[in-house]
From TrEMBL:
Keywords: Coiled coil. It comes from the Bacteria. The keyword Coiled coil applies. It comes from Aeoliella straminimaris. This is Uncharacterized protein.
Length: 103
């Protein structure tokens, strides 16, 4: 997206099959309109990118809060299971054999 040869005509660069191809748009009034349109599109993409980034940051903050709540839940569940006479063995909660069930 540039004016070539000192502003004589406007071209667009885009990738086709991994290679950069230049597309002639036009000179004069046509080139000026195309340049303005490309600038608007570029600005719109930048705004969308900023909105997406803000949304991702918000989701990351929410994920941290959910992870913290899950961690607290696991600690509370482990305390309750231990108090009920269970122990955690190889990823599984098991009742201890040597203790009687608290009544």
């Amino acid at each position: 997206m540039a004016w070539d040869h000192g502003g004589r005509y406007y071209t667009r660069s885009r990738k086709v099959n991994g290679r950069v191809m230049r597309e002639y748009v036009g000179g004069g009034e046509m080139g000026a309109m195309a340049a303005e349109l490309d600038a608007l599109r570029r600005e719109q993409r930048e705004q969308e990118r900023m909105l997406w980034k803000a949304e991702q940051e918000e989701l990351a903050m929410f994920d941290e809060q959910v992870a913290k709540c899950c961690e607290y839940g696991e600690v509370i569940a482990a305390a309750a299971m231990t108090a009920a006479g269970f122990h955690f063995h190889r990823g599984e909660w098991r009742r201890r054999r040597d203790q009687k069930c608290p009544s």
